[in-house]
Amino acid sequence: MGDAMGHEAGGSGVGPRRGARRWAVRLTGAVAAVVALLGCTGLPGSTPADSVDTTDSTAPEAGVPLDVLLVFDNSGSMADEGAAVLLSAAAIVDALGDADWRLGVTTTSAHAAYGPTAGTDPGEAGTLAGDYIEPGEGAADALREQLACSVIYFKESDLPADPFYEGEPGDCATPESGSVGREYLDCLCPDGWNMDEGSGTEEGLEAAVDALCRGEAPPEACFNEETPITEADAGTVDLWRVDSRRRIWVISDEGDGSRRQQTADPSADAYLSLFDQLGEPRFSVVGPYFGDDGDGSCLDGAQTWGVQRYQAAAEATGGAYLALTGGPATDCAAVDVGTLFAEALREDL
Known about the structure:
Rossmann fold, 5 strands, 8 helices, five-stranded parallel β-sheet, alpha/beta, disordered N terminus
């Protein structure tokens, strides 16, 4: 069902509002089954891709600042994906290149009841997990520390031991084992790593809007009785610059459960309206596989309408929807989410 702005529910039949283009991520193995479609109808969960099409007739002028927000699902089911993103921190920073960029990290927890305190902890309700990250030496280390120490939920009893890990605080080499163990987290987070599981109601769109509304001079529409933020929170997130290119990426194994849309409503209209008032960010998602043919066999418990809501938001803003797994033809095989995100981010500049 469309609204007055012409947005359609369900992630199909929506024309992009601006900057639309189509591109594909060229990866290997199971990842090769995943394609990103920007600004086109019928976002699929999986389509083979052989090359990267970087043609973009609406490419922004060189020198325009780039502000990126990563919204990571910190619920208990995301440890494997979190480990993959953590181990790809250097590739993610490298993907941003030499542009004038800032990178902030928050979580899909829009409630303030899941962190170590009863108040709003860093990474909740659109706050940043730490200072925004800028280009330069130490950027990858700063991203690793925020992800490991404040964002990703690792259950200690599920972590492998790595007795041969030799890193020391300040010099935490990527584990040769290729997995995240207790020793690596202890190195990255000598004061303790994140042991607080985030909300089981993942609100990626709400977290994104809350982070935008925490910028300078937000519109009144940011705040109502349902929101976790108030007018007093304006100006508390300094990630956003005037006239910057704004990119938001959600990584989650669930669909969107954000509060400004009715439960089971696949549209993202309330959030698209706010995006239009908040710098028109391009919104993209790495989420559950859901084919445009309605095949939900790889959703793994995610609600169809929540995935469709993410797809609708991505399509309407000229963003991408990428799948965490291959489709049924691959038996829903997992992909390297860290590599997938880094490659997609490079193409989203």
